[in-house]
């Protein structure tokens, strides 16, 4: 059983619901446990190599650290908390330290859930599934597919334009207005080319008889079975179980109600 | 041709098309019929509405744009408006020019399924139909391939397969080979020729270079600059009557017609009609051997080419992502020399040119410009002495007006405004763009954009100019003007290194040819000697230029006896 | 909603989203630098850039849904090409899009003047901030800091999305690439009114 085989729409729904549920908790243990289970599932049932996973994951470790740092420095001081350390106006309480840690962990647990989805789902199948299960209009779904196809082309053109600017001897942008001019020099040819290509693609699609008709029979059928819902239930259970374990050890903290 | 000519099935009556808010029609009063199994070549100067007409016949226009179509189009006696949306596309298919913008799915299989699903083909039949269509264009091994990994030629074959899978009765070809190299282009035309024998469809062909299409064509329809029908009749009549006019409009004539026109002017062609094929040309020449000298446009090497080497490449290798893109390449460029780089797609031509321009850093080996390592040059100095013209002119544009585009590099050099003005004007005059000085570079026509991109690289009097297929997809006039600019550059002591697929340019202009294959240099020398190296020609999928082909054929027929060979030729 | 759209408009929308998805990814790197230097508020400084596609798409296509859909698709594409924020980002995109769309809806999709475009950029700032407050746990920060973040983001939305989006769209229209869209026709008309140097 591979994660790739589950229905893409339900996989996406699972990730989003897990994220929403996780947002209720303000303790570091719940997201950490979820992270551990999710990552393990990605490796075992997603056949994703650790190397590839950590490559995508590592920038978020940095992001998590910044979150922790910001949350420590600009933490909300609440009366009656255990003070760990004071220095001038800067006060660190045990509770705020835990909150900061929880925000960092939250970023990482979200990332692990997302990677589980991204590394085991093909974009084309996701869109086919959105059309077949979620009634996404074909006009939009195939429009997105068509746009998505331009991606390698846009990257390639970006490179060419950078080289062309060197050839023309465009000096390095220093001031703000030069930077804006530079942004324009890149964006305008890229967009102009892309828009013309988009219009041509639209015509090519229409020439193949595409009308955007919602009654469409698919060659490539994406189905939903009880297994997909079991997958959904499993991951929600993982999050709730994480919270339960956290509660058992006395860490669990919900948002304290003051907005 | 044994076809029932009485039943046209596609017919237009007094067709006129205008873009919204414009008085001048794109084309007007076009009466046109297409018969079953017929192949019609649609000709006309660029901008005369050929493609627009094709899109109207397919009902893509006017829906896709804000425009107004007057007159009527009937398919098998039924007005096009009476068809349900998308219905007519099953009967009338089209292959477009740009291989990059014809698909909306990521894999070959899904793309074919997309069209079949649109036509409400029962899903269980789709698999079979996909296989059949791919087989027709020899793409079956690529069924599960990602489209973006295919070559341009393969993409166009896929586009053709998509159309064929719907079993159309009319196939419109809107310059399908314009973006392909000669080898892929030849392959695509061969496939279409094969298919036309076995399948019964009519063809409407819009094409740029006609050599591969001419024997397939039953009839020509010529539009003039105003978008009116200038001529509608047999191919032979078309070129006999209008060859001169077509040429003046920048339309590429079939090589035999062009040669015939030249020979006739020189008084050495005695045939009554202009030749459409080589056989007809040879048969009509007064003295074929003598004619070769007149028809040959090989440039005479300037007396005493200077021996000063300005660019030298030694043992150059280049790796990217673990792949060896160029292997151990050495050669040099002299002052006043025209060096052409040829080779099939993916052989490393563009990579080599980028290395020569100092845009990439060599993995191994040296590139010396004026005896100094490229890496030691100050960026600004290098750019003022070495120009590079990209394949797509738009990539190079950085200003909002044509004027500023040329003035840009002069301003960097902090030249006085008055001088800049003078130089820009001279430069724009040279490429006939002075009257467009205030326009946005992007809003120019394709040929104008090309000229502007070259002009912007000539204004600094760069000694070495590198060009990446500058004549690609250009009309005959632009190509000719461009080559004139290069000649002028050489005359003033500059050197030119040009990547090109065009063997006619190679033959007529190059002092030296370098042929690449799989990142290796497999030939360096005179073009004349290259044509004799059959093995190299085959590996690099090059075709001999027309004049060489003619020379070979004349020699062969001289041996075999003229009458007999002419018979063979007309039958072939 | 989509039935009134031509396929051409849908694909142009989608291509805009793709281009800006790439731009957004580049700015994530840039944002991380600011973020490292200034903390969380560093991100808010450039947050507006993430709404720009809403403004550009709405200004070019001028149909209900353009702002919302473009932002949503850009987010979806970002997910596909490797922003590990993942499917949640699609939700963020939708919420940002709703902010801008709401402003255009208030003008009944009839007014695309500068102040409307600026307001739309700010609209995205507001909705995105509310969402961020919940999902990223801003509640853990001191109220003063949160207020500062909000105002910085509001200004960023106005400038980097509203004004920059307008300027880029108009630069693009001048190339003639948008000739079949209302904005292209306006530029053309403007040109013929005041001579070539418009």
From TrEMBL, chain A:
<dbReference type="GO" id="GO:0043190">
    <property type="term" value="C:ATP-binding cassette (ABC) transporter complex"/>
</dbReference>
<keyword id="KW-0472">Membrane</keyword>
<dbReference type="GO" id="GO:0006824">
    <property type="term" value="P:cobalt ion transport"/>
</dbReference>
<keyword id="KW-0812">Transmembrane</keyword>
<feature type="transmembrane region" description="Helical">
    <location>
        <begin position="53"/>
        <end position="74"/>
    </location>
</feature>
<dbReference type="InterPro" id="IPR003339">
    <property type="entry name" value="ABC/ECF_trnsptr_transmembrane"/>
</dbReference>
<feature type="transmembrane region" description="Helical">
    <location>
        <begin position="12"/>
        <end position="41"/>
    </location>
</feature>
<dbReference type="Pfam" id="PF02361">
    <property type="entry name" value="CbiQ"/>
</dbReference>
<dbReference type="InterPro" id="IPR052770">
    <property type="entry name" value="Cobalt_transport_CbiQ"/>
</dbReference>
<feature type="transmembrane region" description="Helical">
    <location>
        <begin position="229"/>
        <end position="255"/>
    </location>
</feature>
<feature type="transmembrane region" description="Helical">
    <location>
        <begin position="100"/>
        <end position="119"/>
    </location>
</feature>
<protein>
    <submittedName>
        <fullName>Thiamine permease</fullName>
    </submittedName>
</protein>
<keyword id="KW-1133">Transmembrane helix</keyword>
TrEMBL record, chain C:
<feature type="transmembrane region" description="Helical">
    <location>
        <begin position="33"/>
        <end position="61"/>
    </location>
</feature>
<dbReference type="InterPro" id="IPR017195">
    <property type="entry name" value="ABC_thiamin-permease_prd"/>
</dbReference>
<keyword id="KW-0812">Transmembrane</keyword>
<keyword id="KW-1133">Transmembrane helix</keyword>
<feature type="transmembrane region" description="Helical">
    <location>
        <begin position="145"/>
        <end position="164"/>
    </location>
</feature>
<feature type="transmembrane region" description="Helical">
    <location>
        <begin position="115"/>
        <end position="139"/>
    </location>
</feature>
<protein>
    <submittedName>
        <fullName>Thiamine permease</fullName>
    </submittedName>
</protein>
<feature type="transmembrane region" description="Helical">
    <location>
        <begin position="7"/>
        <end position="27"/>
    </location>
</feature>
<keyword id="KW-0472">Membrane</keyword>
<dbReference type="Pfam" id="PF09819">
    <property type="entry name" value="ABC_cobalt"/>
</dbReference>
């Amino acid at each position: 059983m591979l994660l790739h085989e589950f229905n893409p729409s339900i996989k996406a729904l699972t990730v989003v619901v897990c994220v929403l549920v996780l947002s209720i908790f303000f303790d570091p243990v719940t997201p950490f446990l979820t992270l551990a289970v999710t990552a393990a599932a990605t490796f075992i049932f997603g056949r994703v190599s650790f190397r590839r996973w950590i490559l995508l994951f590592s920038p978020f470790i940095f992001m998590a650290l910044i979150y922790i740092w910001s949350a420590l420095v600009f933490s909300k001081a609440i009366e009656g908390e255990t003070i760990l350390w004071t220095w001038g106006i800067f006060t660190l309480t045990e509770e705020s330290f835990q909150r900061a840690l929880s925000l960092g962990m939250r970023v990482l647990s979200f990332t692990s859930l997302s990677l589980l989805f991204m590394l085991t789902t093909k974009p084309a199948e996701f869109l086919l599934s959105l059309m077949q299960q979620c009634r996404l209009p074909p006009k939009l779904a195939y429009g997105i597919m068509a746009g998505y196809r331009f991606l390698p082309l846009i990257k390639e053109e970006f490179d060419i334009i950078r080289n062309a600017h060197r050839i023309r001897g465009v000096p390095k942008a220093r001031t703000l207005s030069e930077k804006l001019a530079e942004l324009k020099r890149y964006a305008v040819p890229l967009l102009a080319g892309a828009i013309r290509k988009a219009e041509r693609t639209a015509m090519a699609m229409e020439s193949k008889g595409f009308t955007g008709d919602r009654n469409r029979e698919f060659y490539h059928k994406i189905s939903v079975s009880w297994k997909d819902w079991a997958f959904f239930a499993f991951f929600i259970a993982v999050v709730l179980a994480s919270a339960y374990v956290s509660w058992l050890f006395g860490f669990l903290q919900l948002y304290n109600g003051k907005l | 041709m044994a076809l029932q000519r009485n039943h046209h099935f596609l017919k237009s009556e007094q067709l006129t098309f205008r873009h919204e808010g414009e008085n001048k029609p794109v084309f007007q009063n076009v009466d046109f019929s297409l018969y079953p199994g017929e192949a019609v070549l649609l000709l006309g100067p660029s901008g005369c509405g050929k493609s627009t007409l094709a899109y109207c016949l397919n009902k893509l226009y006017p829906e896709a744009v804000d425009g107004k179509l007057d007159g009527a189009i009937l398919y098998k006696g039924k007005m096009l408006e009476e068809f349900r949306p998308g219905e007519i596309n099953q009967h009338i298919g089209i292959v477009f020019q740009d291989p990059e913008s014809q698909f909306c799915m990521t894999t070959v299989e899904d793309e074919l399924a997309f069209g079949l699903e649109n036509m409400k083909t029962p899903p269980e039949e789709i698999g079979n139909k996909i296989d059949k269509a791919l087989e027709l264009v020899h793409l079956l091994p690529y069924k599960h391939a990602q489209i973006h990994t295919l070559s341009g030629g393969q993409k166009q074959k896929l586009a053709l397969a998509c159309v064929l899978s719907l079993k159309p009765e009319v196939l419109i070809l809107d310059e399908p080979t314009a973006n392909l190299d000669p080898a892929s282009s030849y392959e695509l035309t061969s496939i279409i020729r094969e298919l036309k024998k076995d399948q019964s469809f009519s063809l409407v062909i819009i094409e740029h270079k006609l050599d591969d299409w001419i024997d397939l064509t039953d009839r020509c329809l010529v539009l003039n600059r105003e978008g009116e029908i200038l001529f509608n009749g047999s191919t032979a009549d078309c070129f006999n009557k209008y060859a001169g006019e077509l040429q003046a409009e920048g339309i590429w004539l079939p090589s035999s017609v062009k040669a015939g026109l030249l020979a006739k002017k020189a008084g050495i062609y005695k045939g009554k009609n202009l030749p459409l094929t080589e056989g007809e040309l040879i048969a009509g020449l007064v003295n074929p051997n003598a004619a070769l000298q007149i028809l040959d446009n090989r440039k005479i090497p300037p007396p005493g080419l200077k021996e000063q080497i300005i660019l030298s490449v030694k043992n150059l290798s280049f790796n990217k992502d673990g792949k060896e893109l160029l292997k151990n390449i050495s050669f040099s460029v002299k002052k006043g020399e025209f060096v052409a780089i040829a080779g099939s797609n993916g052989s490393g031509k563009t990579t080599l040119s980028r290395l020569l321009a100092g845009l990439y850093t060599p993995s191994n080996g040296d590139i010396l410009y004026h005896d100094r390592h490229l890496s030691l040059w100050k960026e600004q100095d290098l750019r003022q002495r070495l120009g590079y013209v990209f394949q797509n002119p738009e990539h190079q544009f950085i200003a909002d007006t044509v004027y500023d585009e040329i003035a840009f590099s002069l301003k960097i050099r902090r030249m006085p405004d008055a001088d800049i003005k003078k130089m820009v004007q001279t430069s724009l005059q040279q490429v006939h763009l002075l009257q467009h000085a205030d326009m946005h570079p992007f809003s120019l026509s394709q040929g104008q954009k090309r000229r502007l991109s070259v002009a912007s690289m000539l204004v600094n009097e760069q000694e070495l100019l590198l060009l990446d297929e500058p004549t690609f997809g250009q009309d005959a006039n632009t190509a000719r003007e461009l080559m004139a600019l290069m000649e002028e550059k050489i005359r003033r002591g500059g050197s030119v290194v040009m990547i090109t697929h065009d063997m006619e340019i190679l033959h007529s202009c190059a002092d030296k040819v370098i042929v690449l294959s799989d990142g290796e240099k497999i030939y360096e020398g005179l073009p004349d000697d290259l044509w004799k190296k059959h093995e190299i020609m085959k590996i690099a999928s090059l075709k001999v230029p027309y004049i060489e082909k003619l020379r070979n054929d004349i020699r062969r027929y001289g041996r075999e006896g003229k009458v007999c060979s002419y018979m063979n030729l007309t039958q072939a | 909603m989509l039935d009134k759209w031509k396929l051409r408009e849908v694909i142009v929308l989608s291509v805009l989203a793709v281009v800006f998805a790439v731009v957004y990814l580049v700015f994530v790197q840039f944002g991380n630098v600011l973020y490292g230097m200034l903390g969380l508020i560093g991100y808010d400084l450039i947050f507006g850039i993430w709404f720009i596609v809403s403004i550009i798409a709405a200004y070019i296509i001028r149909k209900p849904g353009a702002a919302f859909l473009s932002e949503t698709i850009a987010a979806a594409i970002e997910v596909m090409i490797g922003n590990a924020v993942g499917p949640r980002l699609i939700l963020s995109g939708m919420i940002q899009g709703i902010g801008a769309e709401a402003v255009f809806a208030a003008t009944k999709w009839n007014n695309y003047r500068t102040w409307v475009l600026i307001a739309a950029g700010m609209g995205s700032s507001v909705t995105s901030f509310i969402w961020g407050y919940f999902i990223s746990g801003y509640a853990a920060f001191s109220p003063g800091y949160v207020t500062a973040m909000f105002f910085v983001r509001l200004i960023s939305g106005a400038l980097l999305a509203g004004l920059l989006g307008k300027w880029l769209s108009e630069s693009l229209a001048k190339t003639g690439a948008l000739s079949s869209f209302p904005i292209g026709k306006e530029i053309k008309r403007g040109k013929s009114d005041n001579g070539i140097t418009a």
